[in-house]
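## retry 2 of 3
previous attempt timed out at serialization; input unchanged, resubmitting
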Amino acid sequence: MVLVFGDSLSAGHGMRANESWPSLLQARLGERTKVVNASVSGETSGGGLTRLPAALREHKPSVVVLELGGNDGLRGLPMDLLAKNLASMIEMSENAGAKVLLVSMKLPPNFGDDYTKRFHELYATLARRYHLAAPPFLLEGFEDHMDLFQSDQIHPTAAAQPRLVDNIYPSLLPMVK
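## retry succeeded, writing output
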């Protein structure tokens, strides 16, 4: 069982639930692997850290797709606190017997070069520390195609959701076999 644990990008903000990338991932994986989407719009790493223990107990996943941090970055959360929260969720998931796919996030450039660079590098650093696969960037290959984003220019449209699955699937597939 795959537990998708993220924010509005995974919760399917602004679209029907069956149009979100976790729903499309379920269709691609088929009946052999169940996908549970426990994502919440507006979620932060701190909120995720609070919710994760119950989700792990309830769903007993073999894989956790951890897609959090974007809202923390947009709020300017100190990098050490974000790193601590994500590390705790990785450890919690692994201690529950799940493999972790950490999904990388990026911030818009208006947060300054130093913060945005450190933010993006944090995901690769955590992946190395915990011996995880290189984290895929959820919006890779279309982040500058504004026609694939809703009017808020943050959330991908339903038409973009297959691309999100394409970005996650190669890293996830070996974990579910």
